Amino acid sequence: MNVEVERKFVCDPDIQNKLRDIGAVCVGQSKFHDQYFDSPDFCLTLRDVWLRRRQGCWELKCPSSKSTPGMEEEERLCSRYREITSLPQIIAKVRDVMKHGCEEQGGQRVSEVEEEGKEGDRQGHKGATGETKTGSHIDQKDPMINHSDKPNTKRSDTVNKDVTGFEDANQCSLEKDSDLSWLRELNLVPFAEFTTERCSFSLSEEGEEGVIHVDLDKADFGFCVGEIEVLVPDGKEVQSALKKIQRTAERLGLSGDQRIQGKMDVYLQRYCPEHYRKLLNAHVL
Length: 285
Description:
By secondary structure, the protein is α+β, with helices and mostly antiparallel strands. It is built from eight helices and 13 strands. A hairpin with a 3-residue loop joins strand 12 (212-219) and strand 13 (223-233).
């Protein structure tokens, strides 16, 4: 199970030239559609667990411990997640989080988050019938359909890519729409959905093993962000990965000591402010 160590950065207009100047090679362009799922009480995301369906492929990102002596500054600017791509393992992990993890929401940290959201929930918008409406309506027959006012691109479960050098879709857990009973059973519904255009680069350092990945993303809700990523097999050599990311950032002239928001942060801030506030209060974002 790989651990993704990643640092986000603000893209300037000359970023592709800067990447080529330091020896990075463009390995392809892609366009993909993401759906993110959680329970109505945000059981997964309040524990920093992110269930995603990308182009028909299921992925689960779980937090990895952060305790690398002497690398506190680098860690503060980076994120670190374990990624599970086997569907049976994903379902088992989600069940475990929802069975045991959500019980911890009775604890002080999460209970405070929930208490702060109660008043906002009680003051939801009233429809013509007087019924309280949430931000979206979930089709009970098809949990993949989310009728909301959020920006949305027509979903395509076939790979919709114009890619050179990418085979991700052949390496992930695919599932037919007709076999989604586990979503219904666990009451998991989509809370975020958007399309991303990505330009990907790879970079190797002389005398160093492994590849540094740099992705330039543009989301369909008008947000752009760059990502420097190093994959660490089984979570080993995290310190080396952090150093590689730091060196790459310095070579690209990236400055600043503040962590940069990612696509999900901005999406939730704009379109799911209550969810966003709860995650902030829970110190997830």
